């Protein structure tokens, strides 16, 4: 990647409901370079965990997979952020998808550092 690219930053968070001492925890993140790839990341996760979910959470998952997924994809095509949440046994699991622009990183040839790396001087430590 040598120029900025549009894509989606995807995250999965969990939060124990009723626990005010501990906030949400980031469990996974993923960089998607297309709308189908972003929405598929959530779909694969939901299909994978659905057998272990309680019946209400499993129903929530399958409702999104059958009905909500289309609306999520439409919103992503409009470059709008999306959230998918289910609640299982007192824990809310939330997937967040945000449109982003990925910036290229400095390119490296083999083991040679990019030219800009030589502009930094190391500092002595105490």
Distance between the termini: 39 Å
**Shape type:** globular
Most strands sheet? 4 strands, antiparallel
The Rg value, from CA coordinates, equals 20 Å
Number of extended strands:
4
- Low-pLDDT residue intervals, each spanning 5 or more residues: none
Average of the residue pLDDT scores: 87
Alpha-beta content class: alpha+beta
H-E string: EEHHEE
Protein described:
It is a single chain. The chain starts with a strand and ends in a 24-residue tail after the last strand. By secondary structure, the protein is of the alpha+beta class. Strand 1 and strand 2 form a beta hairpin. The protein is globular and about 60 Å long. Helix 1 packs antiparallel against helix 2. The longest helix is centred in the middle third of the chain and has 23 residues, at 55-77. It has 2 helices and 4 strands, in the order ββααββ. The model has no long low-confidence stretch (mean pLDDT 87).
């Amino acid at each position: 990647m040598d120029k900025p690219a549009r894509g989606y930053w995807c995250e999965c968070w969990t939060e124990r409901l009723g626990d005010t001492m501990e906030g949400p925890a980031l469990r996974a993140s993923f960089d998607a370079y297309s709308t189908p790839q972003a929405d598929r990341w959530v779909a694969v996760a939901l299909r994978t965990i659905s057998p272990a979910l309680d019946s209400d959470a499993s129903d929530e998952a399958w409702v999104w997979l059958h009905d909500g997924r289309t609306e999520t994809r439409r919103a992503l095509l409009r470059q709008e952020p999306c959230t998918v949440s289910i609640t299982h046994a007192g824990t809310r699991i939330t997937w967040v998808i945000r449109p982003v622009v990925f910036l290229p990183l400095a390119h490296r040839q083999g083991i040679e550092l990019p030219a800009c790396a030589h502009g930094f001087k190391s500092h002595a430590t105490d």
